[in-house]
């Protein structure tokens, strides 16, 4: 009976999710071109941009991984709150710059920006392939996360294999049809449920199991004090079973991820969907408030130490849901499951959308027969990427999970080519490309040989330092060799800048034009 109730609640909300994706198309003609599909026609206001970018940041990791890390290690999991908050502060400056650059040149993603900045279309294709390698693990992880959630809230009635397929089918369905706008609409439903369910759990679980926060926190400090300080439970430097998540790791990971998140392809998709640069600035101010919700699964993971002790390996990721299933009635379990599932669907949708856009715009467009059908090509790539992630979830569940270890660290190697190049004219193509090759090689070598962190420092930051050193050295060498590779375009065509005041000027010009038109009439 419990399984039927919880699964029915879940099914109703999944139907509502698809319906919202379809409703997002109302008043948009027949769907428009690639810009309408991939960046919402650059017309999303502050509310939709806020829920979309909050939705991208609050994934199934927030329900499963954050609680699991809290259960396993404790304090190190706070790096998520730290880097996201710092990233929003950096995004206050970077977001409007990227938005203005893309709008001025008609671009729809980072691959477009790289190709335009260096004047080499094939370079956009290279970046698209590289970014896909680092993004595809996220799709598999979200499929896995939603599958685990559905299986648990159904009390085992729905198998993991069927749950994986449901995650793929629901997400692919509305992404292909409605694009970024549909994801933004679904984010509204998701955020309402996330705020409501986590707010309820934050109060009900400590009260149900410990008679309130006082006894819970007192017991936590007394019995599990190791979880409350870095490097958390396990301690040590990573050798001999220690976690390795000490102060240096925390600082270096927060620094690297806060820089990387602002040029992450999915973040940039949110930037480019905005109606104005001012909407992005306001969004950066308000988004950190959403991070407060991240403390709830972390705290519940710590609570699970006393309620369901002894969870090991992947089981620790179920710490929060074991509390939920044990303490709540079936209909409430279903609602919490829906909130967690939507926290998989929304980011997974944006990941798939971005991969489709990158390939449709920067890879397949190089083939003449696809050049005029970029949106259709992108939609096909969405289905292919999702299907590949689903297939690997069934056949090789650990392959992409290993790759996920270097997703942020690998994407960080695009920072010089995407961000530095847009503000520093002297960075040459040869320098940026050489640095990228070295950075990716170093991070892969360190991670896959088990040397992450390096002396307590995030391996991605070590690789980025090597990346920058090579980029600057090659740039200097090329510059000294002569102006053979100099870009003849003016700065306004090549570089990005903060569009402060431009929107007011455009608004004044539009008003003046309307006034002149009215006067003529």
Question: Please, could you describe this protein's structure?
Answer:
This protein is mainly α and 521 residues long. The protein has 24 helices and no strands. It is globular. The termini are far apart. Mean pLDDT is 83; it is low at 504-511 and 516-521.
Produce a short descriptive summary.
The protein is 73% helix and 0% strand.
Shape: globular
User: First CA to last CA: what distance?
Assistant: 71 Å
Q: How many strand segments?
A: 0
| Structural class by secondary-structure content | mainly alpha
Count of runs of 4 or more consecutive helical residues? 24
Radius of gyration: 24 Å
* Residues in β-strands, percent: under 5%
Please outline the major beta sheet. none
N to C succession of SSEs: HHHHHHHHHHHHHHHHHHHHHHHH
Mean pLDDT: 83
Question: SSE layout and pairings?
Answer:
Elements: H1 2-23, H2 34-39, H3 46-57, H4 60-63, H5 65-72, H6 79-105, H7 110-118, H8 121-153, H9 160-210, H10 213-223, H11 247-260, H12 265-272, H13 277-286, H14 295-307, H15 319-327, H16 330-363, H17 374-395, H18 399-404, H19 407-411, H20 415-423, H21 429-448, H22 459-481, H23 491-494, H24 502-520
Helix pairs in contact: 1-9, 1-16, 3-9, 3-12, 3-13, 3-16, 5-14, 6-11, 6-13, 7-8, 7-20, 8-9, 8-16, 8-17, 9-10, 9-14, 9-16, 9-17, 14-15, 16-17, 21-22
């Amino acid at each position: 009976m419990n399984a039927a109730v919880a699964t029915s609640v879940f099914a109703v909300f999944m139907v509502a999710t698809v319906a919202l994706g379809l409703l997002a198309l109302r008043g948009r003609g027949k769907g428009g071109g690639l810009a309408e599909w991939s960046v919402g026609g650059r017309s999303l206001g502050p509310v939709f941009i806020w829920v979309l970018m909050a939705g991208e940041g609050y994934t199934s990791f927030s329900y499963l991984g954050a609680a699991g890390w809290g259960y396993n290690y404790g304090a190190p999991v706070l790096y998520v709150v730290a880097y996201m908050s710092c990233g929003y502060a950096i995004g206050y400056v970077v977001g409007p710059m990227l938005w203005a650059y893309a709008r001025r040149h008609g671009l729809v993603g980072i691959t477009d920006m790289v190709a335009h900045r260096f004047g080499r279309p094939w370079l956009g294709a290279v970046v698209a392939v590289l970014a896909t390698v680092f993004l595809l693990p996220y799709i598999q992880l979200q499929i896995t996360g939603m599958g685990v959630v559905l299986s648990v809230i159904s009390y085992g009635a729905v198998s993991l294999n069927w749950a994986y397929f449901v995650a793929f089918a629901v997400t692919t369905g509305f992404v292909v049809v409605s694009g970024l706008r549909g994801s933004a609409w679904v984010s509204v439903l998701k955020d309402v449920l996330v705020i409501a369910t986590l707010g309820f759990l934050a109060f009900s679980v400590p009260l149900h199991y410990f008679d309130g926060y006082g006894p819970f926190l007192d017991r936590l400090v007394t019995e599990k004090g190791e979880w409350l300080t870095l490097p958390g439970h396990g301690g040590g430097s990573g050798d001999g079973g220690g976690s390795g998540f000490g102060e240096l790791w925390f600082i270096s990971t927060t620094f690297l991820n806060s820089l990387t998140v602002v040029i992450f392809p999915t973040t940039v998709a949110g930037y480019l969907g905005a109606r104005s640069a001012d909407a992005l600035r306001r969004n950066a101010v308000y988004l950190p408030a959403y991070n407060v919700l991240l403390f709830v699964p972390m705290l519940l993971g710590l609570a699970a130490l006393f309620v369901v002790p002894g969870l090991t390996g992947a089981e620790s990721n179920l710490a929060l849901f074991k509390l939920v299933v044990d303490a709540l009635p079936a209909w409430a379990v279903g609602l919490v499951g829906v909130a967690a599932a939507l926290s998989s669907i929304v980011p997974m949708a944006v990941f798939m959308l971005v991969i489709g856009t990158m390939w449709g715009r920067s890879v397949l467009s190089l083939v003449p027969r696809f050049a005029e059908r970029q949106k259709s090509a992108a939609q096909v790539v969405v289905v292919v990427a999702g299907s590949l992630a689903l297939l690997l979830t069934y056949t090789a569940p650990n392959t992409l999970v290993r790759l996920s270890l270097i997703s942020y660290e690998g994407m960080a190697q695009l920072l010089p080519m995407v961000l530095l190049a847009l503000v520093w004219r002297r960075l040459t193509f040869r320098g940026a490309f050489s640095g990228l090759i070295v950075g990716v090689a170093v991070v892969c070598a360190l991670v896959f040989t088990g040397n992450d962190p390096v002396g307590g420092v995030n391996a991605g930051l070590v690789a980025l330092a090597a990346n920058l050193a090579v980029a600057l050295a090659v740039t200097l060498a090329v510059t000294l060799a002569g102006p053979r590779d100099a870009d003849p375009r003016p700065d306004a065509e090549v570089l990005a800048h903060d569009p402060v005041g431009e929107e007011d000027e455009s608004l004044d010009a539009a008003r003046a034009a309307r006034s002149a038109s009215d006067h003529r009439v």
